[in-house]
TrEMBL record:
InterPro entries, alphabetized: ATL_DNA_repair, MethylDNA_cys_MeTrfase_DNA-bd, MethylDNA_cys_MeTrfase_DNAb, WH-like_DNA-bd_sf
UniProt source species: candidate division WWE3 bacterium
Protein name: DNA methyltransferase
Keyword Secreted: no
Tree of life domain: Bacteria
Xref: PANTHER family: 6-O-METHYLGUANINE DNA METHYLTRANSFERASE, ALKYLTRANSFERASE-LIKE PROTEIN 1
Molecular function terms from GO: methyltransferase activity
Keyword annotations from UniProtKB, A to Z: DNA damage, Methyltransferase, Transferase
Amino acid sequence: MSKFREKVIAAVRAVPRGQVVSYGQVALMIGSPRAALQVGYILHDYGDDGVTPWWRVINRDGYISTNCEEHTALMQKELLETEDIAVSDKMQVDMSKFRYLPGPDVLKKLELEDKYIELLYNKFLK
């Protein structure tokens, strides 16, 4: 497995039950802020490993955006709701309420450089 894939998987596994992140946020958490699409591809490949909570990753506007036949939007909605995450009929999560913001200790474990830590906090702690 590539170092990039390992970092994506580690970042997603760091998201606690009852919280969500966006694809772009995962990319930023691993120091590759323009790699949101690749994050989605990796989660598709590793979604059935039984350990990686792929369902906790949604789009930047809070919408469930999967179009995968194996991991359907309804499946993702149900998994989020089992974690007490409210999902609207339009398949949207309130990111201001449920977004996970990792502490510096988690980001250091992900080997994130200080400039990306600052960018992450500036972007999501407005």
